[in-house]
Design brief:
Blueprint: H1 7-37, H2 40-63, H3 69-96
Length: about 110
């Protein structure tokens, strides 16, 4: 049976959900700019944004009483948010590395 969510937790869950989306986007942007501009300090900020995302997913999971399957969905979401920018970067860099003068071919892949 599903445990009902307390009315007082609805606002916390909504804010946590918004933070997941916002900090997921911030993480992806900082990740891309770090690779594009070759600035390691931006990668540190990207990881900090990802840490906030992980905390927000934890708050979301607690406030919505996620158990079993839904906790697994939350874990897959957190892993996906971490891996997706890396895969997209490698796809874009690999696709554009053969184009002359684009600058992406000289960026290190890691």
């Amino acid at each position: 049976m599903i445990d009902p969510v307390a009315i007082s937790n609805i606002l916390a869950a909504a804010v946590a959900g918004a933070l997941v989306i916002m900090f997921g986007a911030i993480y992806a942007l900082l990740f891309a700019f770090s690779r594009l501009k070759q600035r390691p300090v931006l990668m540190i900020w990207a990881y900090l944004a990802y840490a906030v995302l992980v905390v927000a997913v934890g708050v979301l999971s607690i406030t919505l009483n996620m158990r079993g399957f839904w906790q697994a969905v939350a874990v897959v979401m957190v892993v996906g948010y971490f891996v997706a920018p890396r895969l997209i970067w490698n796809l874009c860099a690999g696709t554009h590395s053969t184009e002359p003068g684009d600058g992406l071919g000289t960026v290190r892949h890691s």
